[in-house]
Write a structure and sequence with these properties.
Number of helices of chain A: 10
CATH superfamily of the largest domain in chain A: Alpha/Beta hydrolase fold, catalytic domain
Strand order of the largest sheet of chain A: 1-4-8-5-9-10-11-12
Number of helices of chain B: 8
Number of domains of chain A: 2
Oligomer: heterodimer
Distance between the termini of chain B: 36 Å
Order of helices and strands of chain B: HEHEHEHEHEHHEEHE
CATH architecture of the largest domain in chain A: 3-Layer(aba) Sandwich
CATH superfamily of chain B: Vaccinia Virus protein VP39
Distance between the termini of chain A: 38 Å
Mean pLDDT of chain B: 93
CATH class of the largest domain in chain A: Alpha Beta
CATH topology of chain B: Rossmann fold
Mean pLDDT of chain A: 95
Largest interface: A-B, 25 and 19 residues
């Protein structure tokens, strides 16, 4: 795939077998690293991005020219200090920022996969991350950190690759996608598929992309990332341009304008088919569904966990995190959990939340002493 | 570290053996747990209701969950710990009986400390002033106190007898945190520490 920006890449020549049993040939992973790997290779931190995130978690994103999505936390002298740590962040399998996904050219056909791309799972995404970590020569990561879908990946690491990581930090996440979450995703997918430009996923060659469908999907999802009180505080019933109602269907309210902006800026950087595949992967995620349930998922686990949830997050509410903790209480895992007071909803994990940052920093400091780096 | 630790907590820490697995319920800022972890190589877990407390603990590298002992203890399996500690907290529980029974279920033994409400100064103050007693351990007004289930040493020992709970060890302390002998303990003791288990 030809990219409009520079990023590191590794291609795996052997076939990559998915959870579904299907295979991908020449699977590629695009990633960024920040800081230096130490001699002992013990200071590696893997950052797992959320649904619409990418590998550019720190510094400037070369595509959007904006700050990386977690630049507030990651960088020299920051909470995740790249003077100390070697930070790795890869674009997920199924993504559209360089890792193999539906917009990648299928080596078999010479055309972009589109809907011929196999359906992937969170577990497949993590499997590719494990390959990457192995390629970088890291036997055991200092920590795996992620929010939302990134948090699901951290839990997958804890469940299946517990020997390859010391500390796991799931933030605003869950062990499964709830019925309500699946419902919102399905609306988003239907919006994309209802766009006539989507053409059953075969739009890569045409000038017209399913931008309207994807924008609507983003607008719906964006509401779920906020909270009622944050929306009210930020926008209220304020009008966008005039003092009076327009009495037609142009943008009246500020909230309408805001959502439209969110939708239209998103479609410039994201692929509609990737959105379909990644949301599906999230919907399929359920650690409790596996044999032995949630308790078995973390059995004989000697990891250190630090969970965070946010009071106003209704997409991944605190109760979901508490369910995981109940299961972890029955294993030997070292678990810390904090519910951070915030009215910013699910998005709080990406924003300036001093309390969250302070505790995260404290946990990492404790781990530095424990792991001795 | 030790000199910053409350005297009753030092006495509790002396009851803990090295390499135990300890759960501190209402662990506050984690001073006792970090002391135990450093001095006795104890494997520690904590539950704390207040966010500031949890923050302090996590910053110290402790494994602490934000939770409420009134409701969250039932989620722990039997015998997950060697010792469960409940220091100066039992009087603030909604269901102290339930909490105590959970403690000796999830741990082999429970160490419970509380202010003795039958301490002679409390009796004296109540007798002469006719007002709800206050002291350093019980500093609140009647209307804003979290201490809704205060008890005396006698209340506690009667409770243990009634519920068939075995008292393995006990310590009675004066206001300075010094150990007292058993003589008229329910009048002389300002605080008590009990180590209990299932019969």
């Amino acid at each position: 795939m030809k990219l409009k920006f520079e990023t590191q890449k590794i291609t795996y020549k052997d076939s990559f077998t998915l959870y579904s049993g299907r295979e991908i040939q020449s699977c590629e992973v695009a990633f960024e690293t920040y800081g230096q790997l130490n001699k002992e290779k013990s200071n590696g931190i893997l950052i797992c991005h959320a649904l619409t995130g990418d590998q550019f978690c720190s510094g400037i994103n070369p595509l959007t020219k904006k700050k990386g999505w977690w630049d507030i936390l990651i960088g020299p002298g920051k909470i995740i200090d790249t003077n100390i740590f070697f930070v790795i962040c890869s674009n997920v399998l199924g993504g559209c920022m360089g890792s193999t996904g539906p917009s990648t050219v299928d080596p078999k056909t010479g055309k972009q996969y589109g809907l011929n791309f196999p359906v992937i799972t969170i577990s497949d995404m993590v499997k590719l991350q494990v390959k990457l970590i192995n390629s970088l020569g890291i036997k055991k990561l200092f920590a795996v950190i992620g929010g939302s879908m990134g948090g699901m990946q951290t839990l997958e690491w804890a469940s299946r690759f517990e020997k390859k990581v010391n500390a796991v930090i799931p933030i605003a996440s869950s062990y499964r996608h709830s019925a309500q979450n699946i419902a919102f995703h399905e609306i988003g997918r239907q919006a994309i598929m209802a766009d006539t430009n989507w053409k059953s996923g075969n739009y890569y060659g045409s000038k017209q992309k399913p931008k309207r469908g994807l924008a609507v999907a983003r607008m719906i999802a964006h509401i779920t990332y906020l909270s009622e009180s944050a929306l009210q505080r930020k926008f209220g019933r304020n009008l966008q341009n005039s003092k009076n109602f327009s009495f037609n269907f142009i943008t009246d309210f500020q909230i309408e304008s805001y959502l439209k902006y969110q939708g239209s800026s998103f479609v410039e950087r994201f692929d509609s088919n990737s959105y379909l595949y990644i949301t599906k992967a999230m919907d399929y995620f359920d650690l409790s569904f596996r044999k032995g349930g949630l308790t078995n998922a973390f059995k004989n686990n000697d990891l250190s966990f630090c969970f965070f949830s946010f009071t106003s997050d209704w997409l991944f509410p605190t109760s979901e995190t508490k369910t995981i903790i109940k299961s972890l209480n029955t294993s030997n895992a070292k678990v810390s959990f904090v519910e951070v007071k915030s009215d910013k909803g699910h998005d709080a994990f990406l924003l300036d939340e001093p309390e969250f940052h302070e505790i995260l920093g404290g946990f990492i400091e404790g781990q530095i002493i424990k792991q001795g780096i | 570290m030790k000199k910053n630790l409350r005297k009753d907590l030092i006495l509790i820490s002396e009851l803990i053996n090295s390499n135990e697995k300890v759960l501190d319920i209402g662990c506050g800022n984690g001073n006792l747990l970090s002391h135990l972890m450093k001095i006795k190589k104890v494997e520690c877990r904590g539950i704390e209701l207040s966010q500031t407390g949890v923050n302090e603990c996590v910053k110290k590298g402790l494994s602490v969950i934000q939770g409420d002992a009134n409701f969250d203890l039932k989620d722990y399996p039997d015998r997950s710990f060697t010792t469960a500690i409940l220091s100066q907290t039992i009087q603030a529980m909604i269901y102290p009986d339930n909490v105590i029974e959970n403690l000796i279920r999830i741990a082999e033994r429970a160490i419970i400390s509380f202010p003795n409400f039958a301490y002679w100064k409390i009796r004296r103050d109540f007798f002469f002033s006719g007002l709800m007693p206050k002291n350093i351990a019980l500093p609140y007004e009647w209307y804003d106190t979290p201490n809704i289930h205060l008890c005396s040493i006698k209340d506690f020992t009667n409770f243990c007898e009634k519920k068939g709970i075995k008292i393995n060890e006990f310590l009675y302390l004066n206001e300075e945190g010094e150990k007292l002998n058993d003589f008229m303990n329910n009048i002389r003791a300002y605080q008590a520490i009990f180590c209990v288990s299932k019969k």
